[in-house]
Amino acid sequence: MSDGSLLTDANLLTDNPALYEARFPDADRLAGRWTEDCLRRYDAGPRLLDMGCGTGRDAAHLHAAGRVVTGADLSEAMLAHARAHHPGPTYVRADLHGFDLGTFDAVVCLDSSLLYCHTNDQLDGFLASCRAALAPGGLLVAEMRNGAYFLGRTDLLDSPKADSFTWQGTVHRSRTTLTVDRTAQLLRRTRVWTADDGSPPVEQRSAWRLLFPQELRHLLAAHGFEVLELHDGPGPRTEPAWREGESPGTTTDADRLHLVARRHTL
């Protein structure tokens, strides 16, 4: 830990939604457009649940596309920001480890939100909740890191990644270190934040579950889902990013996974 830094399990970005949107701008609503493309490809009905909706940008885009959207998140700060800045959807507080929010034609879970299910029990709780929430034939659409990418690769682990951006006249800098916890099957993240406004450094820790493609297929089948698509791109966070009209890929080798699964009708 950096000398003089404050250690916290909080998340500076999710606790400060405006800062989050400044750090991850998405003026073109790429994630929302990619999601809508998936939903249209399989003729999903209009009722949609966005689990882990964050600031509400994607939920609002999908609402504008004509869907009846419920956005759910555990962060009250994110929900308050979404209601104020991205109106249209209904926003509710819910835990993705287990939820009961009604019946939907599709459940969406973007930007690795699913990977905050760290344990098998939490994954089972999420998938069981999704199945219960979906009408027969409903879709689960998710986008996340790919655990298989870390088999034999260390490029994301070898050295910290430094980023900086300016928000409201203050330069914010982050230094992020990723490590693999093989026992827990987690990708652990330590991020140290500094700013040029004189505030002390803050060190924050979080983690994502490392899920492998065949493991994910098995879990989905066990919970009554048929996998329609599972690929590493193109998608909203790939390089190059997905573009309108591009077809889903066929491999699962790169650092992102993109999933479309259908709840069995029985």
UniProtKB/TrEMBL annotation:
PANTHER family: METHYLTRANSFERASE (PTHR43464), UBIQUINONE BIOSYNTHESIS O-METHYLTRANSFERASE, MITOCHONDRIAL (PTHR43464:SF19). This is SAM-dependent methyltransferase. It comes from Streptomyces caeruleatus. GO terms for biological process: methylation. The keyword S-adenosyl-L-methionine applies. Keywords: Methyltransferase, S-adenosyl-L-methionine, Transferase. Residues 232-253 are annotated as: Disordered. It holds the Pfam family Methyltransf_25. GO terms for molecular function: methyltransferase activity.
